[in-house]
């Protein structure tokens, strides 16, 4: 039934655009009495009119009625625009709620905003939960990956509901308590950054196959469909195969050829890189993906440079098509491993900085289903952390991933080198390989950089043979002094 006036709702959803509406339907379908509210009542009415038979909904025309329809402790999921609109809704609802109630922000909020909101609502005894939700419109309706932060007490209350509506893989829910205050939104931010890297790497693989082997989009789509049956099995590879096989009805051309080559972005990838810079942790694969989108949209510069700036005179022509396709596949897999390792590193460093206790194995587990980066590959990460919860330094040092990277060496390096010689941009592949080589180097040229810093700014340096900080009197007799 669509309306039960005497019932009390187990959870409420306010903000009934597509994501909010689909989450409300998901809740109702799973047997939860769901209160629904929107600033404009017309959206509430549309939801009830079109989907009211899917479960028990309690529609409200005002915030007061909405809050009153909820059982105590009240649990309200906010699905409105991030930033000011979210703050306005929180303030409005908090004034109507009581200590012990729970407000859940399911939007793509900045984790710093979530920490601020949690601290403010804590003063009133209200639990605030920043909750990352991934999976798009389909995931919201049929089971997303859910990354809630907040207090353990709030998760005890709302966790069973969120776990039930999440995607499930091997019987396990793709939902887990990530950590306190902003941890959930932090992990969702990094998830989106990894998504940027994954998409960029896939696009580079497509470009290599098209320019290096002369394959058509449809032929490349068939290759991606085949790759989706192996280690690269993932949602993004699956949809790539479908996109490349699609033909534009109006022109008869491959669909990918009539789409303007300027990729948009909403900001979460940028946040991931900015936060990594603040934390001092390298996420070069994610950063290059963000920069590549920026370059794609620099239409004036690209138009001026095309046909003017020189490049290699001979295009890449793969002599053995099957071998080339396999090399690109292996290079894609290796680069993907690096991108995920960097994202997990950022989560580790962020957790240490902000006092969160985040289980990386659980993070990988809940990303296996429902979310945009869901992939067979994540089973390997889950297994790695299950086998060793103290994986040293980097995911790349877990045995499976060390073996995979070792096996990829020749193909990976050959693809990156060949692309450079042929003038095919592969910023994601190249950044991943460069990071890998930097990580495995016993000594880096950073020693020279630090010496330069000491020369022009007296920033000091440390020595390999003794403790302390030192400065050389570069403008004097070049003698060395110990500063600490």
Describe the secondary structure blueprint for this structure:
Layout: E1 11-14, H1 18-29, E2 34-37, H2 41-51, E3 57-59, H3 63-68, E4 75-78, H4 84-94, E5 102-105, H5 111-122, E6 127-134, H6 136-142, E7 145-148, H7 152-165, E8 168-169, E9 172-173, H8 183-213, H9 217-227, H10 235-245, H11 255-258, H12 268-279, H13 284-296, H14 299-305, H15 321-354, H16 360-366, H17 377-387, H18 399-422, H19 427-440, H20 446-457, E10 461-462, E11 469-472, E12 480-482
Parallel strand pairs: 1-2, 1-4, 2-3, 4-5, 5-6
Antiparallel strand pairs: 6-7, 8-9, 10-11, 11-12
Helix pairs in contact: 1-6, 8-12, 8-13, 8-15, 9-10, 12-13, 13-19, 15-18, 15-19, 16-17
Binding site for NADP(+): 15-20, 38-40, 80-82, 108
Binding site for substrate: 108, 134-136, 191-192, 196, 266, 293, 453, 459
Subunit structure: Homodimer.
Give short descriptive properties of this protein.
Rossmann fold; alpha/beta; 7-stranded mixed β-sheet; disordered N terminus; 3-stranded antiparallel β-sheet; 20 helices; globular; N-(1-d-carboxylethyl)-l-norvaline Dehydrogenase, domain 2; Single alpha-helices involved in coiled-coils or other helix-helix interfaces; 484 residues; 3 domains
Number of strands: 12
Summed up, the helix count is 20
Residue windows where pLDDT falls under 50 for at least 5 positions: 1-5
CATH homologous superfamily designation of the largest domain: N-(1-d-carboxylethyl)-l-norvaline Dehydrogenase, domain 2
Number of domains: 3
Question: What is CATH's topology name of the largest domain?
Answer: N-(1-d-carboxylethyl)-l-norvaline Dehydrogenase, domain 2
Helix content: 40-55%
Query: How would you characterize the largest beta sheet?
Result: 7 strands, mixed
Specify the CATH class of the largest domain. Answer: Mainly Alpha
Shape: globular
CATH architecture term of the largest domain? Orthogonal Bundle
What is the terminal-to-terminal distance?
A: 74 Å
| Percent of sequence in beta strands | 5-15%
Q: From the alpha carbons, calculate the radius of gyration and give it in angstroms.
A: 26 Å
What is the subunit organization of this protein?
single chain
- Order the strands across the largest sheet as they lie in space: 3-2-1-4-5-6-7
What do the pLDDT scores average to? 95
Strand pairing plus helix content: what structural class?
Answer: alpha/beta
Organism: Rhodococcus opacus M213
Active site: 188 (proton acceptor), 195 (proton donor)
Binding site for NADP(+): 15-20, 38-40, 80-82, 108
Enzyme class: oxidoreductase
